[in-house]
Amino acid sequence: MARTSKKGLIMKTAKQLFAEKGYDATGMEEIASNAGVPKSLIYYHFKSKEDLLNAVIKEFVDEYNEILHDSRAEGIEKISVYMEFLKQNRDCARILMSESLKNGSSQTILYQVLAPLMEIDGEQSSDNPKMDHAHWLTEFFTSILPSILFVCYEESWCDYFGISAGQMEEEYFTAYRLTHGAYHEHIHKVSK
């Protein structure tokens, strides 16, 4: 395997283990064993376990940024693309949630997901390139956080309540439109 594919394998394995067991409960030896690589190879690519975690999160945020900059989809269609991305990256969503809930420096790890949205909104808003704090508060607590929680709990919610994933997704999008969508409708009316 080429070095880049070994690095990718290490990151994929770390992401799976961090999501399953938690960052603190996962050791470098376990990552190496599960990836089938020597521990020294992990340290060749990453200075530390924290560096490995940061690489996993950076890869997620970079892909998320690409989705936000893809202008082919608009409105609810764009949200559907975003939700599909989160579902495909459910392990990263779990890592973001679990690490952000800890006290200490990792608490802000989830805010990294807000940065690309702030950047793109600033690019699109020529009359107000720096949105006010209330806007970002609303984006975070009525869109980003609920969407990440949705993908983290989707499977167990369906099992617990005996509903299909399709039904749950439909009900979630209805709730999303009524909350976050209503906020955007309000902003659109106010800005006219």
UniProtKB/TrEMBL annotation:
The keyword DNA-binding applies. The keyword DNA-binding applies. GO terms for molecular function: DNA binding. Keywords: DNA-binding. PROSITE patterns: HTH_TETR_2 (PS50977). Residues 4-64 form the HTH tetR-type domain. It holds the Pfam family TetR_N. PANTHER family: ACREF/ENVCD OPERON REPRESSOR-RELATED, ACREF_ENVCD OPERON REPRESSOR-RELATED. This is TetR family transcriptional regulator. It comes from Hungatella effluvii.
